[in-house]
TrEMBL record:
Membrane topology, from the record: Multi-pass membrane protein
InterPro entries the record matches: MFS, MFS_dom, MFS_trans_sf
GO MF, any single term: transmembrane transporter activity
Protein name: Sucrose transport protein
Domain of life: Eukaryota
Keyword terms: Membrane, Transmembrane, Transmembrane helix
UniProt region (Disordered), positions on chain: 19-60
GO CC annotation terms, alphabetical: membrane
Subcellular location: Membrane
Sections of the chain in a coiled coil: none
Pfam family, one: MFS_1
Residues spanning the membrane: 79-101, 113-137, 149-168, 197-220, 232-253, 259-277, 316-336, 348-365, 377-395, 401-422, 434-455, 475-495
Domain Major facilitator superfamily (MFS) profile: from-to ranges: 307-499
Length: 499
């Protein structure tokens, strides 16, 4: 029986009991009215409590919410709940900005920009699994809880994928044939096999990481009361920034082997979560999930609320615009004229400047948006971002790139300070469908980060090709940055449709 049917049955039964007992009370209305009324009230209270206990034992949901409201979560517990956010930021930022661009030069000789764009496109598409994984996690009735089974399985698959990536990357680094292919642009059979294995492991890594992310995201609404949601959200932002900075620093400056470092972080995050975080499992499974339920996860929120739809479109376009930064390592290498290793290190410095500047402005801008509104700050950030792209187009020295990177961080931090708040403001059903709606809201960033490189990568390849297949011209980068500016400005036009 569906939850709606059970609810209607309970309501009709309660109405019947009210009618029967009300008639009985009317017969004794004279000298016995007050005691009879007390009996009716006591009976209804007992029945309501019994029904509440029944619902609680069947789903476990009420006990989870009541426990969250009854106790305050410590700061250490919040750090543990958000530990994976730090690992996720560490892996995503350092891999996309530093590791992939360098390895694509070997994996895709002569077409590294297209290869990088393809890998980033695959990574973005895997993030579509988040709403589905969250749906299945919500319905999980394991004795170990709803989230921890997904965390464990996702971590194990991630570790196996990292082992394969480590093997392939070291094999390529020691294989003279692969190194010669990177110089000549020819693809041998061994290189093709290694590339296929790398791509498969890369896709599996991102799928499993996103399953973990969906499960970790469910811990906060499960275990944190409404009075601490803001604190939990702030902790999440801090963990993401710290993880991203640590990853960039260790890979870009300390030259730590990335895949081993990623594995260590994932093991630690999984272990501390299992040891410290406790869940209340469901007593019985809920209704089965139909294909229609999975399909509705992606479209229901967009169809029922035009404002939410335009917020989603605006966010998609914004992330398409800022995704051009993944080509920064190539930009520094080709325009500044440094080696690949130097370009990797300078790109790490660019990332650190961006993250620090974004962290500085995020909290003040978020508070300011409560007084002036969200949209005005989005307009400001997008205009500033377009000016940054214009500045980068005429940057021929490193300090020029660093200066505009600081402005990029300010612009992106301003946007991020109101990004989540704007999404929450326009959720169609905040009481019943917040998690599902925010999952769809998150997909906009995933798709934007995917579609952006898919468009800009081939553009750089075709407009920036030179006699050296591994070097792109200034014209190609100007076109790349112009497309980025176009998308962020288009984001502001989409937001104008929001009331």
């Amino acid at each position: 029986m569906s939850s709606g049917a059970r609810s209607r049955l309970a309501q009709s039964e309660e109405a019947r009991l009210l009618g029967v007992r009300g008639d009985a009370g009317a017969d004794d209305l004279g000298h016995n009215a007050s005691p009879r009324g007390e009996e009716i009230e006591d009976g209804l209270d007992a029945e309501t409590n019994a029904r509440s206990r029944e619902r609680q034992s069947s789903s476990g949901k009420l006990s989870i919410l009541e426990e969250a409201e009854e106790r305050l979560v410590t700061f250490i517990e919040l750090l543990v709940m958000n530990s994976f956010v730090g690992a996720y930021g560490l892996i995503q930022v350092s891999m996309f900005m530093l590791v992939l661009p360098k390895q694509c030069a070997t994996l895709f000789p002569g077409s590294q920009a297209v290869g990088l764009a393809s890998l980033l496109g695959l990574a973005g598409s895997t993030q579509l699994i988040c709403p589905v994984a969250g749906l299945f996690s919500d319905r999980m009735s394991s004795p170990f809880g709803r989230r921890r089974p997904f965390i464990v399985v996702g971590t194990v698959v991630s570790l196996l994928s990292l082992a394969v990536l480590w093997y392939v990357s070291h094999h390529l680094g020691e294989d003279e044939t692969a190194l010669e292919a990177a110089e000549t642009g020819e693809v041998s059979s061994d290189l093709a096999a290694a590339r296929n294995l790398y791509v498969i492991a890369f896709v599996m890594l991102n799928l499993s990481l996103n399953v973990c992310f969906a499960a970790y995201a469910g811990l906060i609404p499960d275990l944190v009361g409404e009075s601490q949601i803001g604190q939990a959200s702030g902790t999440m932002a801090v963990m993401n920034a710290v993880g991203s900075l640590v990853g960039v620093w260790m890979v870009g400056f300390l030259k730590v082997e990335p895949f081993t470092m990623y594995a260590v972080w994932l093991i630690v995050c999984c272990a501390v979560t299992l040891l410290i975080v406790s869940e209340t499992p469901r007593a019985r499974p809920t209704d089965s999930i139909a294909c229609r339920d999975i399909f509705n996860v992606y479209f229901e929120s967009l169809e029922t609320n035009p404002d939410f739809k335009w917020v989603w479109v605006s966010r998609l376009l914004y992330y398409m615009g800022i995704s051009v930064q993944v080509f920064m390592q190539y930009f520094i290498r080709d325009i500044i004229g440094v080696s690949a290793d130097e370009a990797k290190q300078e790109t790490a410095m660019v990332s650190i400047i961006m993250l620090v500047c974004a962290a500085i402005v995020a909290v003040p801008c978020g508070s300011f948006s409560d007084r002036v509104g969200r949209k005005s700050l989005v307009y400001l950030s997008c205009i500033l971002m377009a000016l940054v792209y214009l500045g980068w187009s005429f940057a021929f020295q490193l300090w020029h790139i660093f200066a505009f990177s600081a402005l990029f961080g300010v612009a992106n931090g301003t946007y991020l300070s109101v990004d989540y708040a704007l999404g929450c403001d326009k959720i169609p059903d905040r009481d019943e469908g917040a998690a599902q709606a925010l999952g769809v809201w998150g997909v906009a960033a995933f798709l934007g980060s995917t579609l952006g490189p898919v468009i800009s990568g081939p553009l750089l390849y075709f407009l920036g090709s030179t006699s050296d297949p591994d070097v792109y011209s200034h014209t190609g980068y100007v076109a790349l940055l112009a497309v980025g500016a176009f998308f962020v400005l288009l984001s502001t036009l989409a937001l104008r449709n929001v009331s």
